[in-house]
Write a structure and sequence with these properties.
Blueprint lengths: L2 H24 L5 H23 L16 H22 L6 H20 L3 H12 L2 H12 L6 H31 L4 H38 L1
Helix pairs in contact: 1-2, 1-3, 2-3, 2-5, 2-6, 3-4, 3-5, 4-8, 5-7, 6-7, 7-8
Length: 227
């Protein structure tokens, strides 16, 4: 890993931490999770923009495969690596510990760290980053709306459905293809393992999302019948 990339990661961790503290102070009457989700939404939006700008060929985004990462790709991965490190430590101070989310973060940190260390597989990693973060703003919006008093409303249901649809298309369809491309190419074994690991976590989350959507729609139908 180049020195400037290492410095960018450190700067990123500090910046995300300061952002959280400023948001926490600005929304002192809100929960710890509320402030962290605002930071996460900012990161997800920034990550998708940076990943989009670093794609070398939109006719085949996961190309060139198993190749040297471009400077744009390295910086994009460094920004997200710094966020994941911040978020992993931040979650330790939250009362609600999430094992699968921690596992996801550890896999991602190792995979992105390896990609930066090797200076390789930038196309695959940026593509994985893009599909992973595309649904994140809607994930956080669901919980933010609940804390703002919009639980069980049409707006909250719309956020739920939007998240489920985008997650399914991005992670399960596009993500499966990206995993195949990553494993099939001559990428470092640790990056191939990361790709498979992330797909397994996404599959587990997909199962939970399907259950959530079925429950929400069933509850909605029951409420209308009673009314």
């Amino acid at each position: 890993m180049e020195d400037d990339i290492g410095k960018l990661v450190v700067l990123g961790v500090v910046s995300w931490s300061i952002s959280f503290m400023l948001i926490r102070k600005s929304f002192a009457n809100r929960s710890f999770d509320f402030s962290n989700r605002l930071v996460s939404t900012i990161h997800a939006t920034l990550a998708v923009i940076l990943a989009s700008l670093s794609v070398e060929d939109w006719s085949f985004p996961v190309s060139p495969s198993a190749s040297k990462s471009s400077p744009k790709q390295m910086r994009t991965l460094a920004v997200t690596l710094s966020y994941l490190i911040y978020d992993l430590f931040c979650s330790m101070f939250d009362k609600q510990f999430n094992l699968d989310n921690t596992f996801h973060h550890l896999i991602s940190i190792v995979g992105l760290g390896a990609g930066l260390a090797y200076g390789k597989s930038g196309s695959e990693l940026v593509a994985a980053l893009w599909v992973s973060e595309l649904s994140s703003p809607f994930l956080h919006l669901r919980e933010i709306l609940k804390e703002l008093g919009y639980r069980d409303t049409d707006l909250n249901l719309a956020a739920d459905i939007s998240f489920a649809v985008i997650f399914t298309v991005a992670r399960m369809l596009c993500g499966s293809y990206i995993t195949y491309v990553t494993v099939a190419a001559s990428n470092p074994i640790i990056i191939q393992v990361m790709a498979v690991g992330l797909l397994l976590v996404s599959t587990f989350w997909f199962y939970k999302i399907v259950k959530m959507v079925i429950y929400k729609l069933a509850k909605r139908t029951t409420s209308k019948k009673i009314a």
